Amino acid sequence: MPRAKLQITFIGGGTMTCAILDGLTHSTSASSSAAQTSNYEYALSILVRRPEHAVELGERYSSAYITCDALDSRLWHTAEESLVEGHIILICTKPQDTREVCETICNAYNAAPTPAVLPTIATMCPGITAATLTSWLGPPRGFHIPFPVVRTMPNTPVSVGQGATAMFAPPQTGKLELQRLIEFFRVVSPCVEVLEEESLLDVAAAVSGSGPAYLFAMYRALVAAGVEWGLSEHAARAMVGQTAVGAGILTTNKREISLSAMIGNVCVPGGSTEKGIRVLSDRGLPEAVMEAVGKSLEANHRMKQS
Ligand SMILES: NC(=O)c1ccc[n+]([C@@H]2O[C@H](COP(=O)([O-])OP(=O)(O)OC[C@H]3O[C@@H](n4cnc5c(N)ncnc54)[C@H](OP(=O)(O)O)[C@@H]3O)[C@@H](O)[C@H]2O)c1
């Protein structure tokens, strides 16, 4: 059966846009089950603001349509021309650009002569609430309902089809719109958690949006320790990387075993690992992580006011 076509428009062509596009390529070429079982075929477009950036992205993502013009009709004349069933606009700019981007989207949508499909607007930034987004977007021409909005929080492992993505949709966003976003993100993100409370999206941002950086910091410290004690950088990184992959899979797949028990499984009582773990604990690793996540969360909350 032919798959329904969804248009996905990325606003901005930075780190997260490229991570998602790389992940789509990766998942398709690896024939991931989410890519194979998806009900949709995606028509991709990217709105950027610099012509040289458009050229650069065009060379990298030949299947995507790239434009610098928000009024470009190919972004908006979707339903009539290509039988597109729905349209998702992913705002992939920095949080401080979100208000301007919302105004651009609403103006461009309202200026398009045949806006037959009401796009769902998705953000991936912390702090900015669904109610604020709705007010910045304003009412869409030709519809008696506001733009459906969904807040998402992916992370950079989407680039290898291994992301974790949190989502929140306010009650006025339809189930179909949310389901389409879930399905799109599943292709690059085996973990999609739909949160019941909007405030938890900022917590997800501090834990899993920022999470890769915390884990990379740990891996970097482990590699440095290996090198300090004589391993080559190459060997240390290869071993730490694969250890992280395996530990990640164990954490995900063996949920019946607590993380404390998993630590215990590696620590023979009185053995070498136990001695090392005690140093991390005495030096306050859990407290340091708690404080780091707390600081991130505080910064995410402050974005509401900016
Ligand atoms: N990076 C992460 O690990 C991560 C993880 C989770 C969530 N996020 C969130 O994802 C969002 C994007 O982050 P990022 O790291 O991808 O940022 P980024 O690399 O700085 O990319 C932002 C892009 O937006 C473009 N842009 C800004 N205003 C624009 C406009 N009006 N029209 C079109 N393009 C515009 C910028 O263009 P120029 O190149 O011309 O400046 C830039 O290419 C942020 O809200 C961030 O909080 C990021």
Short characterization:
The protein is α/β, with parallel strands linked by helices and 306 residues long. It has 14 helices and 8 strands. It folds into 2 domains: 193 residues, 3-Layer(aba) Sandwich (Rossmann fold), CATH 3.40.50; 92 residues, ProC C-terminal domain-like fold, CATH 1.10.3730.10.
List the helices and strands and how they pair.
Elements: E1 4-11, H1 15-29, H2 33-37, E2 40-47, H3 51-60, E3 65-67, H4 73-76, H5 78-82, E4 84-91, H6 98-111, E5 120-123, H7 130-137, E6 149-153, E7 164-168, H8 175-186, E8 191-194, H9 199-209, H10 211-228, H11 233-253, H12 259-266, H13 272-282, H14 285-302
Parallel strand pairs: 1-2, 1-4, 2-3, 4-5, 5-6, 7-8
Antiparallel strand pairs: 6-7
Helix pairs in contact: 9-14, 10-11
The chain binds NADP nicotinamide-adenine-dinucleotide phosphate.
The site of NADP nicotinamide-adenine-dinucleotide phosphate has 25 residues, from helix 1 and helix 6.
